[in-house]
Design goal:
Layout lengths: L1 H4 L4 H8 L6 E2 L7 E2 H23 L8 H20 L7 H17 L7 H10 L12 H34 L7 H41 L11 H41 L3
Antiparallel strand pairs: 1-2
Helix pairs in contact: 2-8, 3-5, 4-5, 5-9, 7-8, 7-9, 8-9
């Protein structure tokens, strides 16, 4: 009984929070589907977009309610960004940008929940020992989103330029057809850099934020809040440290969602225009 109630070491605590649920599909650093990431991202999508669909059904032409006004502000802001950046005509870009920003922001916002809360609930209620609550701290999730954007880039290139025009641009720009091998290599590097930078930027920032929250718990000495021996001073220190970083982290989670959205719009715009 004493062993069960003993607090974990700092290394054990960190390792516990950085491990996904063992149930997964596939193997590899960027090609694994973790069940906890899939469940959390799916639940966030269902809840958030369900609320937005409810606001749309209840929308009125008169004075809007608070929920309707908030949804209209978010959609209006994103729609203006699309109008300013994407100059072709396509009905997909604005809904795509809305989905990207809102979904990524809400997944990032899970990082503001105390790091122990969701894992403890999953452990106590469902008996699940390992559970990563923030989907964007999983590189497999961020790469999945960036590869979807990459596929759309290729589709937009063919749609707006035609297959012949796209191939001509790959081999002839920017140095002319006589340097086709050089143009091809440069184009491959340019295109591959887009999904890699999208995925790693989002993952890196969110993973770093998650690690900082974990380190703050360790610094306050409050990582075993359900074990005997954790003082009120430790818990208060944990709350103060986490609150300070959490307020600043709101800017980070918003900025990362906005950057991912804007780069997606820019890449779509580049794909729809000639070199």
């Amino acid at each position: 009984m004493a062993a069960e109630n003993a607090a974990p070491t700092a290394n054990e605590y960190i390792a516990h929070h950085l491990v996904n649920l063992p149930l997964k599909i596939g193997e590899g650093p960027f090609w694994t589907v973790h069940l906890d990431t899939l469940i959390m991202s799916g639940l966030v999508g269902i809840v958030v977009f369900g609320i937005m669909a409810y606001a749309a059904r209840k929308a009125t032409a008169g004075v809007p309610g608070k929920l309707q006004a908030f949804v209209e502000i978010v959609i209006g802001m994103i729609d203006q960004q699309v109008r300013d950046t994407f100059h072709a005509k396509n009905a997909l870009v604005t809904p795509l940008a809305i989905t990207v920003f809102v979904w990524i922001f809400c997944m990032n916002a899970l990082d503001l929940i105390p790091v122990d809360f969701i894992p403890k609930v999953m452990d106590k209620v469902f008996g699940v020992h390992y559970w990563k609550a923030v989907p964007t701290t999983d590189p497999n999730a961020t790469f999945a989103m960036s590869l979807t954007v990459f596929a759309l880039i290729l589709i937009f290139n063919v749609k707006y330029k035609g297959l012949g025009g796209f191939l001509h641009e790959i081999f002839a720009a920017p140095f002319g057809i006589w340097l086709a091998p050089v143009n091809f290599v440069l184009r491959v590097i340019e295109e591959l850099a887009k999904p890699i930078s999208l995925a790693l930027r989002l993952f890196g920032n969110m993973f770093a934020g998650e690690v900082l929250f974990i380190l703050m718990v360790l610094l306050a000495g409050a990582w075993a809040w359900d074990s005997v021996g954790v003082s009120a001073a430790s818990m208060l220190g944990h709350v103060i440290l986490s609150l300070g970083w959490g307020i600043f982290h709101i800017l980070i989670i918003t900025l990362q969602a906005f950057v991912f959205m804007m780069l997606t719009i820019v890449y779509m715009s580049m794909a729809s225009e000639s070199h």
